[in-house]
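Morning, I've got a small favour to ask if you have a moment. It would help a lot if you went through both lines with me. Thanks so much in advance, here it is.

***
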Amino acid sequence: MSTETLGRTTRLELDDQALREWEAVVLDAAPDAIVLDRSAFYPGGGGQPPDHGVLLWQGVQTRIAGVRKGDDLVLIPVEDDPVPPVGTVVRGAVEDARRTALMRTHSGLHLLCGVVFRDYGCLVTGGNMEPLTARMDFDLREVPPGFKQTVEDACNKEIEADRRIDVRTLPRDEAFAIPDIIRTATNLVPPEVQDVRIVDIVGLDTQADGGTHVGSTRQIGRIAVAKVENKGRGFRRLRIRIED
């Protein structure tokens, strides 16, 4: 895999989604913004919220409450926590339970998207997630009888199939040559992005995506479709829970 950077920060989480701890050097430090040379904190995007975690340095702990994309990858410390000086070697640690739950949830949404596209031909019009709970909106004009249970059953069948989830990066032209690579009603990949990250639930769903994912569908757990809502003009919202 190619290594991605954001400004001066090398992003470690996209190549190694299991990574939770690493060493880094502080490049910039302020009470509301810390920049490291290497980071495995996911900054959020594609509906997936940013990671939480800590930096450990010289016997001190700095809690990280969020991450944002700027000219660099910017870590947001908890207010009034001590901030490591520039040049300090720190040990970063992502909050494992939250990240793992978000990975399961994000993969669950891709699986849901793949099932609904395969079985009903519907594109996604929106989505959002928190750990183990999420929503996805579809352009679905009519809701067939038994839709909610049918979708839930189909999703869990794909989970039991334990399909491998692969991640790779392709040149833009090669990526967009893959049929149906964009599953949203609007192409959200900016034109300046020349290397496109692809998440492939092998045999079910292939999408351009920048988030973090589990390694196979069985690692998702179980999907419960909690509710189907009518959002008007033929748009339907599916709310799901990820269960053990």
